[in-house]
User: What shape does this take?
Amino acid sequence: MAPPPLILFTVGLFGAIVGSFLNVVIFRLPERQSLLLPASHCPQCQTPLSWFENIPLLSYLVLRGRCRHCQATISWQYPLVELLTALLAVAIVLRFQFTFAAAAYFLFAAALLVIIFIDSRLQIIPDPISLPGILLGFLFALVSDSLSWQSSLIGLLAGGGVLYAVALVYLLWRKIDGMGGGDIKLLAMIGAWLGWQSLPFVILVSSASGSLVGVIAMLRQKKGGQSRIPFGPFLSFAALLYTFYGEEILTFYHLYLTGQWP
Assistant: This one.
């Protein structure tokens, strides 16, 4: 049974507040800045923001996307991350109810959201996100009712190994790096959280969607094979899909292989 609307609204509000912090992580972590100090401020005029300028989503709308002090444009990323985190929080509660697994998967989803925005902007996946994520995914498997530690361990080893092999073959073939180490660590993290069973789906969906966007980028940039797009967002999006629809995907696997419902 779905929670009452007021409860879901509260969950969404909590998600938006977390999303406000994720914005800090997205902008400061790649620059190796403190996530706590200084307090939130305008990146243009450096003026500290008042509490009413820091209300998730609402402040952006009231200020019409501009700093109250210098009128500089506020990045659309701020409300978008807050909105997406709020929606993820609600979706996770609807899927997993108020359980330990829900809290764990919200942490996993938040990490993926940070990776999507950082990699899209800078084409890097910070180790402070992926490496602790691998460890936390394996620790989650140790106490999870739905994911065994064996599946998690195989997932993190196979996830990292598959992309490492692909990157090595590409390097030997083209003599250039075709995939960064961040993508390898990210797939290892995904395997640790979702188990080895998730890897065929994640690799297939991310590769298909990434290839499609890559072709479009080549046509628009007119750089041919020199066009580069970050792969992390596609891996992360596929992992989010599996997080919510893993059971249905595994059922489809079984139906495809055996022709029978499990």
